[in-house]
Amino acid sequence: MQIGACWFNAQEQVLVDAASGRSWLLSADEFQALSLLSAQRGKVVSRMELLQSITPHLKLSMRADDLLNSTIRRLRLFLGDEAAHLLVSVANQGFILYATPRKHPRTVLNSPLFKLSMPQFMLLTLMTLAMLLWVGSHITHPTSIAPNYAKQLPTHDGHYSEIQFYTGQPSDHSMWPLVDHFVEQVSSCSVFPWQSIAATISTDQRFVSLVLKSKDADGLNFETIKMMSENFNADVIDELWLKRVGICA
């Protein structure tokens, strides 16, 4: 049986290179695998079938799988330079043996002789630029969000600190009493060590998140305070609480 440039003599279990005259006496595993592949030339032979033919005495294991892989490698070595196109692996399935080499057709773009003409190059460039412009036009750029309320407070060192409130409701003034109360209490601090306070208030006024920012010789420092209460005005925000959480020094 002709397989590429080799002749497979099944009776003598020999594979002969017709060009060089070199021959290989196949081992039992090599012979069983090549016989099974030859009997189903042009069709996928599963790894399971091959394993059962060459390792009937071994249970399916890593050892049996390694034995099959080494058997296929030796057969490809015997088949010579055309082996990659004669004995082909099929991912997650098995192997196919062809009588003659089956080379994959070369596409235009991966051909080493392929060259773009100037009109083709310009067209490709314009299409790329158009795609980039289209993608750029659909990207949402970040926008800054203005606070609903902002006030500057003088500090003990003669500078000013800023308090900003974000309520998420641009036209809702129902939170202003809470904001005014907080600013009034902070204004009474004898020492206010923060450059700024950014506060976010939930729409039901039960949750407040504060981000405190200061700067020293080591750089910027941040502290975060999260609060929950049914009534911030009466229950939480007073001078004692401001000192306890570190807003007032």
Automatic annotation (TrEMBL):
Entry's Gene Ontology BP terms: phosphorelay signal transduction system; regulation of DNA-templated transcription
Coiled-coil annotated spans: none
Gene3D superfamilies to which the protein is assigned, alphabetical: Winged helix-like DNA-binding domain superfamily/Winged helix DNA-binding domain
DNA-binding region listed in the record: 1-99
SMART domains: Trans_reg_C
Keywords for the protein's UniProt record, in alphabetical order: DNA-binding
Gene Ontology molecular function, alphabetical: DNA binding
Record keyword DNA-binding present: yes
Domain OmpR/PhoB-type: start-end pairs: 1-99
InterPro entries membership: OmpR/PhoB-type_DNA-bd, Sig_transdc_resp-reg_C-effctor, WH-like_DNA-bd_sf
Organism: Shewanella sp. (strain MR-7)
Pfam families named in the record: Trans_reg_C
Protein name, entry field: Response regulator receiver protein
